[in-house]
Design brief:
Strand content of chain A: under 5%
CATH superfamily of the largest domain in chain B: P-loop containing nucleotide triphosphate hydrolases
Largest sheet of chain B: 6 strands, mixed
Helix content of chain A: over 70%
Order of helices and strands of chain B: HEEEHEEHEHHHEHEHEEHEHEEHEHH
Distance between the termini of chain A: 27 Å
Distance between the termini of chain B: 46 Å
Helix content of chain B: 25-40%
CATH topology of the largest domain in chain B: Rossmann fold
CATH class of the largest domain in chain B: Alpha Beta
Oligomer: heterodimer
Largest sheet of chain A: none
Shape of chain B: elongated
CATH architecture of the largest domain in chain B: 3-Layer(aba) Sandwich
Largest interface: A-B, 28 and 35 residues
Number of domains of chain A: 1
Number of strands of chain B: 14
Number of helices of chain B: 13
């Protein structure tokens, strides 16, 4: 067990070090969510005035913040698998697999790294939203739930990205699948728009969309009238999906090694 | 599962000292067969067709063959990265198919591509590799210093590896491969892509390893080296095997393999391929020449008479009206060994 922790820590640290040594990437990682927040915030500022838009008296920025948090977590996590692709293209993957490194640690290394990135991004998004005038009614409980849901969402999609990377071994395939999935998941959710205003079929799909689960958990958490009956099942589903996806990624690792 | 360094090194040392000199091999691969799928409705590609290999403890063993012969596939199987369709593998006395984790603790792998992450420094790469092998922070630091010094990387230790030259990166790869004091080290084409100076340095380092430097004289690391350079295999290997089409076609010390050929090789270059055909036919009838083969516009033969055979051979060709571009006589080389066993000249397939 301690070996697993040591190996996971070493591999997480490796990715974090690499990121911090590329200040341009750090900057992009932090600026991108700010752009989403301020751009969408300005673009759709008045949609809250559409009759039936359920903001509960909040501004659009306040409504949007949980959406941008989830969206950012998804976009970042979808890249997790690129670490493996780079390692495969070099001799790093072979060297690690011929060493006593734990396979679980190799999954943890990328997932925990993405989780840390997501949490930092979430902090930045909340601070920017605050600076732009957003006020949340239950900042403590709300941000707590926002962090948890963003972290779980990251695990789900980072593990999935890892699995795709291990099965396809191809950067282009990984990027293609990520692109194909990311934006539709955002639009088939309540991230930027109240689904009450959308067609019923779209609302139905949103019910099964993990991104929407994270958005709802965070948004409900931040409001005074938290609907706990909406929060708990979604949080549970996110956690369950995180476990399922992680085990799928581990299976993908076995498949990768078998086909070597 | 964490290994205190003392116990780790103790275990490896004990394994080495208790391994008997005869009978126990450092590497023992029996009848390895490996096929790769090559797409739907196509025959799978057979990379290894019953390869058998025995490497003695402490020797430098060369696997020589052109690209695609099966060298890397063999190394990947021995290093637990790949599983054979059939056959058995023992590395450092451990069944690699039954207990790959134990094999991984006892081996070092230097694959063809750089194995250090580009955004880490040389020191960080070594320390991380040491810690993955169970050394604690202090031990890892000490081992890192040792290896940085030994490979002349101390000055570059804190630079990112992406700024290293090809030769430096290769040295770091070998250092990483040695971090756990392995009993078996795999070097997959260690000098491919290196400039002549870096190549000479790598040769010197492998020779030092073979001389027992790694274990302060008490025991030697077993090195399995793959290469498609004839001179490299000749220079470095205690014993070598020639791999062709997934099988070993010849095995022995370089000297033995060469002496088995008996006699010198005669190589005649002709002006064109048609002339070479005529020349080969004529030379085959020459009483002092044997094993006449032709490839392109080159005709090769063996002789027991050295340079003395050249004038009469040239006279035969002149009679036949064949234009000779050059004729050379040489002591047997590994190239000749390869030609004999693989049925074609090495240079023709090595590209």
């Amino acid at each position: 067990m301690t070996t697993l922790v040591t190996h996971s820590t070493l591999l997480t640290k490796r990715s974090l070090t690499a990121l911090l040594r590329q200040p341009a990437f750090v900057l992009i990682t932090l600026i991108q969510p700010a752009i989403w927040l301020l751009l969408f915030g300005a673009l759709f500022e008045d949609v809250v005035q559409i009759p039936g838009f359920g903001t509960g008296g909040r501004s659009y920025l306040e409504f949007l913040t949980p959406g941008v948090v989830a969206m950012t977590a998804l976009f970042s996590a979808a890249w997790a698998g690129t670490v493996y692709i780079e390692d495969m293209n070099l001799g790093v993957m072979d060297r690690l697999l011929a060493s006593p490194v734990r396979r679980g640690a190799m999954i943890n290394g990328t997932v925990v790294y993405q989780g840390i990135v997501s949490i930092v991004q979430t902090v930045v998004i909340i601070l920017i939203a605050y600076a732009a005038g957003a006020r949340f009614e239950r900042p403590l409980v709300g941000t707590g739930l926002t962090f948890v849901s963003a972290a779980l969402l990251t695990v789900v999609f980072a593990a999935m990205s890892n699995a795709v990377a291990l099965l396809s071994r191809d950067q282009n395939a990984l990027i293609g699948i990520s692109q194909l999935l990311s934006l539709p998941l955002v639009f088939l959710s309540s991230a930027i728009m109240d689904p009450e205003l959308a067609p019923t079929w779209l609302q139905n799909i949103a019910t099964y969309n993990p991104l929407d689960w994270a958005v709802v958990v965070s948004r409900e958490g931040l409001s005074t009238s938290t609907d706990w009956a909406a929060v708990w099942p979604r949080l549970g589903a996110l956690a369950a999906l995180a476990v399922v996806m992680s085990s799928l990624a581990t299976q993908a690792f076995r498949a990768y090694q078998r086909s070597a | 599962m964490s290994h205190p360094p003392a116990a780790l090194h103790g275990a490896i040392a004990a394994e080495r000292t208790t391994a008997p000199d005869d009978g126990a091999y450092a590497i023992e691969a029996q009848d390895l067969v490996k096929t790769f799928p090559s797409g739907r409705r196509r025959e799978p590609v057979r990379a290894l067709g019953g390869l058998t290999l025995r490497v003695r403890p402490g020797e430098v063993f060369g696997l020589l063959g052109p690209n695609g012969a099966g060298k890397s596939t063999t190394v990947r199987i021995l290093a637990t990265l790949s599983q054979p369709n059939s056959g058995s593998v023992r590395v450092a006395g451990i069944d690699a198919l039954a207990d790959p984790a134990a094999v991984r603790r006892s081996i070092g792998l230097v694959s063809q591509k750089p194995s250090a992450a580009p955004m880490m420094t040389g020191r960080e790469s070594l320390e991380m590799a040491a810690r993955i092998h169970g050394l604690d922070r202090r031990e890892a630091r000490r081992r890192t210093e040792e290896l940085l010094d030994r490979f002349g990387l101390a000055d570059a230790a804190d630079r990112l590896t992406k700024t290293y030259s090809g030769g430096m990166n290769r040295k770091l790869d070998v250092a990483i491969g040695l971090v756990n004091r392995p009993s078996v080290l795999f070097l997959d084409e260690p000098t491919t892509g290196l400039d002549p100076e870096a190549r000479a340095q790598m040769w010197a380092e492998i020779a030092r390893m073979a001389a027992g430097h790694e274990h302060d004289g008490d025991s030697r690391v077993t090195v399995l080296l793959t290469t498609h350079y004839l001179d490299e295999a000749d220079h470095l290997s205690d014993r070598l095997a020639i791999v062709d089409h997934g099988q070993i076609v010849a095995e022995g010390t370089p000297e033995l393999l060469k002496s088995q050929l008996r006699g010198d090789s005669v190589v005649v270059e002709l002006a064109d391929a048609a002339a070479a055909g005529v020349a080969a036919a004529r030379l085959a009838t020459h009483p002092d020449l044997r094993e006449v083969t032709r490839e392109g516009r080159t005709v090769r033969a063996r002789t027991d008479h050295g340079a003395a055979v050249v004038p009469s051979a040239l006279a035969v060709l002149e009679q036949a009206g064949v234009m000779v571009a050059s004729a050379t006589v040489a002591r047997p080389s590994l190239d000749d060994v390869y030609l004999r066993h693989a049925g074609r000249a090495f240079e023709a397939v090595a590209r």
